[in-house]
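Quick one: structure tokens for this chain, please?
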Amino acid sequence: MIAADPEAALGADAVRAFGPRLPFLFKVLAAGAPLSLQVHPDRAQAETGFADEEARGIPRDAAHRNYKDANHKPELICALTPFEGLCGFRHPADAAELLEGLDVADLKPYVDILRASPEESALREVLTAVLVAEPHAIAETAERAATAAGHLAPRAARTPTPTPPTPASPTTTRATPASSPRCSSTTSASNPAKRSTSAPAYRTPTSAASASS
């Protein structure tokens, strides 16, 4: 359809800027569970990385290739049903307190990193530690953390929560159908250990249309 009449489908301005193609990737998602961790480059990094892999002759369809094109990957979400999305990470001290509260011995190294490292590098260090850990070990840690969180949830539900003196965290975005929260990157976690330090991007079953360039 676009190829038959690009200007009619996309508009003259879009065709001049991006050529006779859809300038973004359109997805329709039914995210019934947290999605995988995603890290998106900015435009300069995408252009540099793409040019480097092109110069090295790495096929664009190669499994080990990182940059399939020179575009960065900002995302826009338009909620089709009630939707709650969270982007970014908690403050290191808050993340450490939450992990420690689970009382899972395997989480102590991550708590120590979050508390001992400088604030500007703590999250990077703990996330790196999680990602380079042995898969079976981190899976077992995640299972223990999930079990502990499940035991704590009923107790927390029975405990009145005091009204916080400040507004809700700015990293939280709640969207109703037809609204379009935008964030430069989306971070989600596939196991409870990661969810303790970062906010899952999709916490409730939903359908959403997502576009990324």
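Helices lie at 6-10, 12-18, 43-55, 92-101, 108-116, 119-132, 135-158, 192-197.
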